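User: For a benchmark we're assembling, each entry needs the component sequences followed by a predicted structure for the full assembly. Here are entry 17's components. Please fill in the structure.
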Amino acid sequence: MQRRQRLKRLGGYKWLIIVVIAVVLIGFDLLADNASIVNRGIVVGLAIDSGGDLIELAAQVILPRSGGSASGGNDFMIFTSSGETMQDAVEKLSVSMGVKASLSHCTLVVLGGDLLRTKGDTVLKHLIRSPYFADNTLLVAASGKAKEVLSAKVPINDVASYHMQRMMQGVQREAGVNACTIKDYFANYYYIGGANYMPVAVVENCEYTPVGPNKESADGAQLLDLSRTLVLTREGYGFVLDYDASRGLSFVKGSLNDGTIIFVSDCSEERDVVILDSKCTLSVQSEDEVVAKVKVKVKRNDLPTAQDGMIVNALSERERERIRESVRGQILACFKEGQKQDIDIFHLGEHIYRKYGEEWRKNQNKLYIRNIAFDVNVELTVK
Amino acid sequence: MGKTTNVVYPNQIALLAFIASITFKVVMLPQYFAGSAGRAAPIAMAYMMAVEVMEFVIIYGVIKRTSLLEAHIPAALKAAFILLISASSYFKTVVLSAEAVSYISTTLFDNGLWRLIVLAYMPCLVYISYKGGNVLARTAQIVFWFIAVSLLFNVLFAHFNGDTGNMLPVQFSAEIMKACDRHMVWFGDFTPFLFLTVARPAKPQKVRLPVMIALCFAAAAGFMVIFITAYGGGSIMVSNAFNKIAVFNRISLLLGTVDFPTVCSWLMMSVIKLALIVYGVVEGLTYFLKKRLAVALLTGLALSLTLFFGITNMDVSYKIATSPVRYAVGAIEYLLPPAVYLAVRIFDKTSVQFDSTKVDVDALREEGKCREGKG
Amino acid sequence: MQINCKEAADAVQGEFSEYTDVLRMDFNVGGRAAALFYIDGFVDKIAFESSILRPLKRQETLEYPYADTINQITALTTPMKTVQTPQEAAKIVSEGDIALVIDGAEGIFIFSERAYQTRGIQEPPVTNVLRGPREGFVEDVKINMTMLRRKLKTPKLTFKKAFAGKYTDTPVIICYIDGVASPDVVDEVEKRINAIDMDGVVESSYIARYLETNYRSLFTQVGTSEKPDIIAAKMLEGRVAIIVDGSPMVLTVPFILFEHFQASEDYYIKSFRASFIRIVRLMALVFAIALPGAYVALQEYQYQMFPLKFLISIMNSIYGIPFTPTLEMLSILIIFEILNEASVRMPRYVGMALSVVGAIVLGETAVNAGLFSTPAILVISISTIGLYCVPDATEASSILRVLFVAIAGVAGLMGLILAALALIAYLADLRSFGTSYLAPFAPLIERDWQDGLIKESIRDMTERPYSIPTWNRVRRR
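Assistant: Structure for entry 17:
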């Protein structure tokens, strides 16, 4: 009763509650180490290379521009750092930038060839474990240095990071660009055989001049080619698929809804059809035989024309067969390349394991792909 | 606090059951299960969910008639039951709070300080649990709209490539039971419900309890299937399944790298769920000590201190959750409800279902005693 | 008992202070000494003179009991009353009636010919409608009762009179429809009003504080309205209305939070439009309270939730601003509150100039000077406009949004969500005369959703809300 009266004299419970809340809030504010967006550098693309024992990072960072977005696009800059581990390199990036590096909007990571040959596994495991990278972050390999890919001066009003993202997502994606996210990488990593793939970015000079507010000089532009695919294993760098084999891989692995198939017409001219849709199922016939059943829906690129009541530019049966052969050839080319290198590109072992279980797996060694017969059936629908 | 503090309606129980069941099964648990059971993780999840559903049915059979606090059973038996529930609830709160704090620290902050998050999180939990089961259920009813919409969005706009073959071959192996055994603490969260009373509503309600329970089972097992489908063997690398899967949707690709509705809805669910378990502690101890406010404050303080100094990261929390103590907690979670059910059936012949038509007048009269001024 | 005129008149006069506006007129009635007490300005002079004074002065004889004679000679519109003590007479004179003391009479006679100046019936300034009645309550309790009677022409309409305030003795009328309102609620209201112990009641909000159980809460548990159509509609749902003399604001109980989102116009327009508007109001209020805090939280802590282009736009806008996001937002909030308060208090003629100055100062100059960023101004503008979409909730909302900004500034989105949950829990525990404050959403009462966010047509609303205690659930009986 006395305690209650004393509390009432002090103003009641409400002041106690206010004091508690104030202590909590002030304590939180004083002790939390935080930087708001004005004190951060937003990284939109990251390039990781190996420099001896160190990991070298190059980050494409947006620079804030005063006056709001009405004044035009923002400038970008490449900042570099190096460290013994990924986390070390990221911390040092903040030092080189002068503000805290923010990787939350980094949806593209370019991995240098030399890194993939040495420390690729460690770096990729960091990417999936790190809370800063979303698992839909795209992975791209560089034939040489990753930094060069990131620094490429693409011809249109954009930067390399955005440009490559658009090439691998949605509208501009073509058959042959085998996009790979962090999630896809680790899903494949744990398959039987552990083969993985990602597009290889090759920088080529071109005669165009880059346009846009965020270009540092008027030198010639550079083109980025993603039509080739790097195949990796759990040990690291494997080999690079050529253009046709990459397309073969994309038929088996991706659901394609874009790109063209070029074939020779009955008149010995080169014609093409547009891919509308494609699906592939791997059918396990026996413990060492797998058939890929590919269904491709295409449409003619030219409008139908008629003469004497007959459609003159329809696809003949021979032409359809050539289209089927084209697809089949590309897929088989891809498989054969992998088989030559003892890499199970299509994860056939995984599919056989799913059907036959441990009984099959315990009898296999790392070179099981040599004994697997692979064939392709292509079902073509022309719209 | 009046008698109506712990009275809830069947539809409120259904909501609470859904939130209590799902919340912490979609964050770290999928990775733990994948690490133990591999491709058979969905089977392990389905098995444990089936056990949990059976536990809930037993508990509902008790509270449909009376809450444990109001039951006419021998005093010593009742005291033992209540004390055990409070103890297991305390343990679970500590383990699951650690998981929630870890989630917040990595998702919402740049590795925010553990203790500061506990400092902000605990008062809210304690406040809601102090208010009672009735208020907790109503709070869940309000926030569930947001949770349901965000979950629905994630389902409707999901955009990831997955392979259902990742679950093959289907093998019923010892790894499944090992996974279930090691992670039993993450299941069986319904014992605090024994302190609630289910009221007969004044007007007939469409009872959605069976639907909701089926939904719990389907959601938990289904999420596990989606997770394994998406990540396959890589599941063991994924620390926060709910967040990682949620990022793969068409809207999130436009919104940023963290799926805002998912994070916010999970945070709300975690507060409701943890408040429910803390309520189990507070209500149980109040039965003995009578002063509810003091019990709530002390519970909050004890939990905060445990998380401040005892459990300072997820590794410690996981070690404790998978230590032999889990068997004691598991025994309470899975064996106590049938024991209570039997005790009530044998000893309590007089309790009847709470009649909510009487409540309104009583509440009005109770309210009439103005706390300040003349009344 | 027979009155001694001089003693009684002096006693009545003695009840008033030396400096008073009460007038005393001494004259003879039927050969007997008499005294009249009244307040100049309170009585209808023409009626007073013609109906009371002249007949009394002309009367030559008086027969006992004097009341009968006086009733016959005077032409009164309200029945004459008789009181026994000078104290009662003085009290009644204070209320505006006329007291007549006659030597040898059986008591002191009371006449009522009140006619004082009141404000005319106008459209209430805070409740505008495009469609529907535009009349509003005034300060006079009798006029208000009449306006209500015009809406509810039923013999079941009941007015229970009570008084509150030691010095003001303010009439408080408890209105309800007998057979519709719950007697328990009526009794409880009466009990709480009779328990009021204070010196004066000058406005209905005084009564409201005594009707609320948690009077210190930020959230009102008593409804208010200035419009008779709204009050009548609420009474038809089973609520009890309280009219307080001297205030145009009529109170209603029980009150639920969702009433803030229900406007009278919703019932006069098509239900599709009404539903849409209610959803917009809810969104407006959520934006009003949460948007500034969310904006601060996202800037300070959870910037990764912004899409990249939006993030770049914000970064560019806040580049060079000298304040932290929290301080910036709080400063703008305070400035807007100052502007708001000034526009309410400012004389009408200067108000326009102030609006222009405020818009230019904040909208243009502060941004151009680099003190504040454009997105922050935009956020606060949306928030303030949203606040006034639900004007009845402005009191609580304006404070909550400041609190949320402070919490977001220190604890980010997590703090916001935890604060929101704590607030919801607090509201879930609040009750108003037995009704849950968050009904019909918590507890879920689906039958009441016909008048919830999605409003049904008036023809389909055949039952009274289950949230409100009533004896008669069916509307048409």
